[in-house]
Amino acid sequence: MSEPFKALERAPRDSRHPLTEILDAVGFNESGLIPAIAQQHDSGEVLMMAWMNREALEETLHTGRVCYWSRSRGKLWRKGESSGQQQHLKSAALDCDGDTLLLQVEQTGPACHTGRRSCFYVALENDEARITAEPLIDPDTLYGSGKG
User: Which residues, 6+ apart, have CB-to-CB distance to 98 below 8 Å?
Assistant: First the structure.
């Protein structure tokens, strides 16, 4: 754990700390990425997990529109740029170690590229996997011939 996050363990409630100092201490992995969990701000529904690099995180914090790092495309990915199903940031928080983000968002439509509201629709139960949700929108309608 980095020294800044160690110091935050004893920081009083509502104390303020320079954002740059905190971002410098974030535990980005060897690829420069941090996992970001997107949660619907009003219902608590976990929508998806994606990756952010520092640039994506800073853009998200400054614009309020959630931006991720697409590992498959090797570039910034503004949620909804292909599908129109955007995420607008309500709040962002780092975990105690500074290596995972929790984003409270306002999700328009489905968050998952399969057309489902949440990416977490495969329940693992005993000796089988059960699909727990139907697509809200057909993926071909969302993305045409490509995945978003």
Answer: 1, 2, 4, 5, 22, 25, 26, 27
